[in-house]
Amino acid sequence: MQSHIIFGAGLIGSFLGGVLTSLNFNTKLVCRPRIKQKLTKGLILSDYLKNRIEIKSLGFLDDENLASNTNKESFCDFLWITVKCTGIDQASQDISPLVGPDTIILCCQNGLGSDQVIKQHYPNNIVLRVMVPFNVAEPRDGHLHRGSEGTLCIETTDQSLNPINSLVQQINTPIMPVAQSAEMESLLWAKLQLNLGNSVNALADIPVKSMLEQREYRLVISMLMKELLLVTTGLNIKLPKLTALPAKYVPVILSLPNFLFNLVANKMLAIDPSVRTSMWWDLSQGKKTEIDYLNGAILNTAAKLKIACPANENIIKIIKEIEKTNRSKNRKGISGKLLLQEIKNKH
């Protein structure tokens, strides 16, 4: 039986672990004690399409015991790394006891570049990128809810084609659609375009659905996306279609007046009203965000191409100011009107 370990299981990782467990794979979660405590009585998985799965019990590995564990039985067939980009350096060291010579490592981070850290540490293993396009919310302890559309996609290479093809066929389910692709670079840029709402959501301090219902917030996201499209054009990357609309039309739709947006963007608004982004969570908890791997990745590439991206540059400054001054814990959300002004005028 295939063995799977989910390292750094939070909302996404625990949802993934729950799906694998429900499919009777040998699955273990490595997570923080508070996460484990929430899941000790089992897990309910649900989604916005009314799918529902109940798992009576989950398997766990205690991360504090990993460093002293030299038993080859701890090696797994598939190691899913679901920590945030900000934790990838530490994770690259902590996963060592779990990585055998045949372990396939799957990097599930947002943004661009974090997989390179894992490849440097494990040059003899297959290391693949995974795109996770959907949001997961936690209505209550022991219940995880996929609140938006999207198909989890696993990278394939010539070396990994057979095992990944088999894996995808086995784990593709209605509650977690799964596919594979050899064009992961373009997919991740397309996902990054959608992730540009993360920073806006973190600053707005409201659910994603409520944010999208307000044109000023949408205009900010549109500005960020238009700059990304300039960069991908400079890279000669054609973005695949991840939503109902082609990538180049998304910022146009976001810019529409509210009454028109509500008419043509039903699928954009077909998300759970409680869903917020991971960056909102990090900022609200006073943690370092993934801004450098998202908007920062655009700036770094744009600099090489000599393309100006002032909107992305400005929103990075705002996020980093909040991180630096620790204003996150007592802050109030920024209105769409004020955020739009700041993005346009900040130097």
Descriptive notes:
By secondary structure, the protein is α/β, with parallel strands linked by helices. The protein has 15 helices and twelve strands. The strands form two sheets. The protein has an eight-stranded mixed beta sheet with strand order 5-2-1-6-7-8-11-12, sandwiched between helices. The chain has a four-stranded mixed beta sheet with strand order 4-3-10-9, with helices on one face. Strand 1 (3-7), helix 1 (11-22) and strand 2 form a beta-alpha-beta unit. The chain is globular, with a radius of gyration of 20 Å.
The mean pLDDT is 91
The succession of helices and strands, N to C, reads EHEHEEEEHEHEEEEHEHHHHHHHHHH
Helices and strands: which structural class?
A: alpha/beta
Q: Helical amount among residues, as a percent range?
A: 40-55%
Which strand order do you get reading across the main beta sheet? Answer: 5-2-1-6-7-8-11-12
DSSP, total strands: 12
Could you name the ranges where pLDDT drops below 50 across 5 or more consecutive residues? Answer: none
Describe the largest sheet: 8 strands, mixed
Gyration radius (Cα, Å) is 20 Å
Cα-to-Cα separation, first versus last residue: 56 Å
Shape: globular
Number of alpha- plus pi-helical segments: 15
Residues in β-strands, percent: 5-15%
